[in-house]
Amino acid sequence: MQVPVKVIINVIITASIFLCILGGFIIVFIKLFEKTKKNFTLEKENINKEFETQLLKTQLEIQEQTFKTVSQEIHDNIGQVLIFVKLMINTIELTDTEAAGKKLQESKILVGKTIQDLRELSKTMNTDFINDVGLVASIERQLAFLKKSGLYKTRLHVSGDAHEMPPQNTLMLFRIVQELMNNIVKHAEAGSVEVEINNSHDILQLIISDDGRGFDMKAIAGSNAGLGLKNMQSRVALIHGSMQINSIPGKGTRVDIEVPVK
After folding, report:
1. How far is 157 from 181, CA to CA, in rounded Å?
2. Its pTM surpasses 0.70
3. What burial letters (b/e) apply to 28-54, b meaning 16+ CB within 10 Å?
4. d(CA 146, CA 126)
């Protein structure tokens, strides 16, 4: 049976229309895919730029805080020791060789201690040093500065094996801990500061607590949060972590930070 020519023509026209519609859908899909891919690439670039900006800001803030710490340390400790050494040398009587020898020996010990203190301070001025020694040692040094003041009892407890983290994560976490310790010094009126570092399989937990005067949690809720707190929260978020603050007036403050290590 022969198929009418008209039917064949209709089939060809229908098939052509279908192919045109299908081709149109494919073109639209490709354009949408390319647009989505472009938007994703731009978003990724913006995220990377934001992260790099925050990282640079963190590095500058660490340097600024370090300079303040170094300046205070030089003034309160190293400067005082050198003044004492100068006084001892000025009071040496060359006619009394025994007393002069003792004073020179004491001066030598004090100068040696000053040189060692300067070496320790020079290490804290370098952000690369923070990444080289790791988070635990950096926090330990920060606690040592507090303890050295004679105003605080400090304690550092570490559990589990330390995780290897990207340098920027270490820098971010150290800056957060440093900011919390600065807040304790400025506002808490505490007598002791404790830091716990718990390493689990996939989570790093940091707990910073003090026995200071505490505060009302409602005071930092929502829009009442200060710029320092918001900066810490944004830094934790940048490394995909979380931060929880618990404080009771008269009973101190505890800050829990959790960061995924993978």
Report:
1. 16
2. no
3. eeeeeeeeeeeeeeeeeeeeeeeeeeb
4. 19
